[in-house]
Design brief:
The structure is a homodimer. Chain A is of the alpha+beta class. Chain A has 2 domains: 135 residues, Nucleoside Triphosphate Pyrophosphohydrolase (Alpha-Beta Complex); 64 residues, Orthogonal Bundle (Arc Repressor Mutant, subunit A). Chain A has 5 helices and 11 strands. Chain B binds a DNA duplex through helix 4.
Chain lengths: 229, 229
DNA sequence: AATTATATGTGTAAAATCAACGCAAAACAT
DNA sequence: ATGTTTTGCGTTGATTTTACACATATAATT
């Protein structure tokens, strides 16, 4: 039934948008959807859509994410709400922006989906609406957050190497770390578990495999520990 | 005209709420409004209300703040959006929560306003809706933020002393600093200006007056400096 | 096949930062 | 008057950060 929802005062639309970060040997990238209709036809945009009355923002963001990219069970969190009066030419719209961190290597869907495509973070095409601003804020939020929360691991395979982890941090923070100091500091935190994958480690060129020990991290956090990077 | 706003799909109400922090010799406190009507009649709540179609969230939060407490020209920023389906018994409501930092000493209004009252942070009365949760999140956001942004000064008089500043940090972070180390670290940052108020400083018991040098801070920030506390 | 270059792991010493602490002087309390 | 409190200043040892060199097996080159 159309047009049956009537209110005493006008209300804005409420949507969610999702900035999807992925990481691989080529560095940090984001997943975008090409718009097939006006406005901003041909521009790229974050997956997102209207919040339903029976779901909260995070649920909505996850649902839209799956519907539009096939991605499931990924880390999603709200980072900012955008409410500028003219941000959407179709009408007053408030968007609760989220970012998603996906293990690009282990994930199906995404790229397969019709018009979804990964873009390296330094080659972003023209974006629809105010999505360029949203992206800047998302990047900033991710950078701030990774200093104190072990969310970087959400972007790596379950099992990873120290150089991979360092690449990730360097890509996100856009700084360079000394290899030895980085490894020391990381290992010192005590949240990495060395993974023994059966293969005998001969020579140093094939790196040690690690996994993130989330139980250990939870324990330490409960005791007042604060991750720092 | 009533009931003239009709939409194809249902829409939640969008409101803003404002957690107002103040600080004085008694420590950190927040400003609350007593509810005169159901639901939650007699409970206390943050000032807030419906977002108009011609204002964004921050504008709305500031407007409601002034309307309900008389407070103007204070630091206001968004920190989280709450969208749980049943957070408001009157109907589906999304609230964009802000926190305000007010220079309690220099401010008019506030307390004068009808049912507005300051409560020490450790003696908060029963709150309406999900405002207790919002308060916890607000406190957490403030604590996280003060480590890296000089927002604490928004809670102090323009001119303040080192012990005052230390009290502020200790109240918010709920830790104790060594007096001498705290002063050293603060002065080292280079964002404080010593204020010469004419009076000759004899003896050490009347403390040195400082003000926050925001120009200096902007310059340093532009050069990549990152405040730490 | 031999040679060279590259990626990875490990340790140490200097520098910088942090943490704990003592002392002196004027104001305040008694 | 006398003792207590508040404030400012500076020192020293501990901890953390930074800078840096070498050994080894794989990968690349010739």
């Amino acid at each position: 039934m159309k047009g049956t929802y009537t209110y005493v005062y006008p209300r804005p639309s409420v949507t969610t948008d999702c900035v999807i970060f992925g990481f691989d040997a080529q560095g940090l990238s984001i997943l975008l959807i090409e718009r097939g209709i006006e406005p901003f036809k041909g521009c790229w945009a974050f997956p997102g859509g209207f919040m339903q009355m029976d779901e909260d923002a995070e649920t909505c963001a996850c649902r839209e994410l799956e519907e539009e990219t096939g991605l499931k069970d990924v880390h999603v969190e709200q980072f900012c709400t955008f409410s500028e009066v003219n941000r959407d030419p179709r009408g007053r719209t408030v968007t609760i922006a989220h970012f998603a961190l996906v293990k690009k290597s282990e994930v199906k869907g995404a790229d397969d989906a019709a018009q979804a495509k990964w873009f390296p973070i330094d080659s972003i095409p023209p974006l629809a609406f105010d999505h360029d601003r949203i992206l800047r804020v998302a990047l900033h939020a991710l950078r701030e957050k990774i200093h104190f929360q072990p969310i970087g691991f959400e972007l790596l395979p379950k099992v990873f190497t120290m150089p991979q982890l360092q690449d990730l941090y360097e890509s996100i923070l856009e700084v360079q770390f000394d290899r030895r100091n980085f490894a020391n500091k990381m290992l010192m935190q005590g949240i990495l578990t060395e993974v023994n994958d059966g293969t005998v480690r001969k020579g140093t060129r094939n790196p040690i495999k690690y996994s993130f020990n989330s139980e250990k991290y939870s324990q330490m956090k409960a005791k007042g520990f604060r991750l720092e990077f």
